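Q: What does the predicted 3D structure of Ribokinase look like?
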Amino acid sequence: MSHNNSIERRGRVVILGIYVTDLTFRAERMPLIGETIAGSAFAMGPGGKGSNQAVAAARAGADVVFCTRLGNDAFGEIARATWVREGITARASVIDGVSTGAAHIFVDDTSGMNAIIVASGAAGTMNAADVDAIEADIAGARVFVTQLEQPLPAARRGLEVARRHGVITVFNPAPALPLDDDIFPLCDYITPNETEATALTGVPIANADDARRAADVLLAKGVGTVIVTLGEAGALLHSATQSVLVPAYHCGRVVETAGAGDGFTGGFAAALARGDDPIAALRFGCALAGISVTRPGTAPSMPTLDEVNRVLNQSASASQAS
């Protein structure tokens, strides 16, 4: 499966985040407390927002460095094997006496919607020192990405170091946490979904106009460009100079939405790193996410660069034909 080690790597992306092993259970519904129900399927695979974003970016052609912490256990071995297979450079310190992270993912058989419990394990012990140890990697990158599954001080230091070295910063504020206002000016791009954008701004989001109102709040806090991912409605890019809604790409029946946001962020970062303009990068991220939801799994569902380009080219020729 080392389908990506042969492609020419363009643009370095450094990602700070967590790895967890996804344990995915499919069933008709969630069990009630005290109840046991039969599931229809089980799968185990690599996950964690940061690691998923790293896989998405690597398959999309970026030169990826991923920084995290692992436990000294079987799940940590799965992590390393995943990164080797994808051609990702890992900066992963091993913490003894703490487990590698794991996620329980329930997938509804009928809708493909999910409910997730994440235990971040060793990655939950990350701090600013992990970032200082990879300062040279960050300084040599075009794009730096982080999220909120690892402790906030590590994410903040990553954004500060990237900013100091003139590296483009992409902050994926997931899962939603209350944040101090001083983190926002460190973000060239922030990529919340509707729920996270509402949590950060207090603006309820039912449509693109609501998303613009929420984005204005974030711009006022000092963010450079806000991207609100809107699921089936696509993604909104909103800055001081432009506001563009890119529709979602429908690439087949939706099998599992878990990991779609990670696919979007990883694809967006890879496109920025190779020099795409923000709207082209937004389209690339949307197309990548549109393919990923038609496949089971989080990291395993991420498409290759060729697959994403095919969807983009089909869409371009279809719009010219109309």
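A (community wiki): The structure tokens above were generated from the sequence. The chain has one domain: 14-32+39-313. Confidence is low (pLDDT under 50) at residues 1-6.
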